[in-house]
Specification:
This protein is of the alpha/beta class and about 200 residues long. It has 9 helices and 6 strands. The longest helix has 26 residues.
């Protein structure tokens, strides 16, 4: 039985979602998966980035992270998407990538994979759940198998979001609970993908 291939695809402006993505990647790897950590392209204008020093600094610090391609989606058995909230929706940067995937969808290459998502917002209740639900709309169209963390592990009763890992950026860097939740969410996605893969091979 081949190991599960997991793509962690994210957008992060100042590093919060990047930290969650790294925790998810580590969780998937510990579950025995082959992991690709991928960022989406930055599309914000230079003047917006330069107005926030932390934004530009994060771009420099993650210059070595490979930019996502369609091949990463085709390769993966499970995909976790990470994004900050923007008025209750995923960022335009992540949506711009998703909006290029029509040919893959039309060819049926995005169906029957496991999908899950995580997010962060600047304030409590700042659109976290609606952002994750908005991403799920895409997964429905793709024919994906949505695997949320639910309340299936003790850490979920601490993090409190059954839709997907989330963090309030205004409270500082992701807490140990948020990072643990991201790792757990990835392990759950890997476990589900592995069961599906084994069942199809039987």
């Amino acid at each position: 039985m081949d190991s599960v291939n997991v793509a962690i695809i994210y957008y992060s402006a100042t590093g919060t979602v990047h930290a969650l993505a790294q925790a998810a990647a580590e969780g998937a790897a510990k579950a025995g998966a082959q992991v690709r950590l991928r960022k989406v392209a930055e599309t914000a204008p230079p003047e917006a980035i330069s107005a926030n020093p932390a934004w530009g600094q994060h771009i420099e610090e993650t210059a070595d992270v490979v930019q996502v391609s369609h091949d990463d989606l085709e390769w993966a058995d499970a995909v976790l998407f990470g994004t900050p909230t923007r008025f209750g929706n995923p960022t335009s940067q992540l949506r711009a990538f998703i909006d290029t995937t029509g040919p893959l969808w039309f060819a049926g290459k995005l169906a029957d994979k496991v999908y899950s998502a995580f997010t962060a917002s600047n304030t409590a209740h700042g659109g976290q759940e609606s952002t994750l639900l908005a991403l799920a709309n895409t997964f429905y169209h793709w024919g994906g198998i949505i695997v949320p963390p639910g309340y299936t592990d003790p850490v979920q009763f601490k993090s409190g979001n059954p839709y997907g890992t989330s963090h309030v950026t205004g409270e500082g860097e992701p807490s140990d609970v948020a990072l643990e939740a991201a790792g757990y969410q990835a392990r759950r996605a890997v476990g589900t993908a592995a069961a599906l893969k084994a069942g199809r091979a039987a």
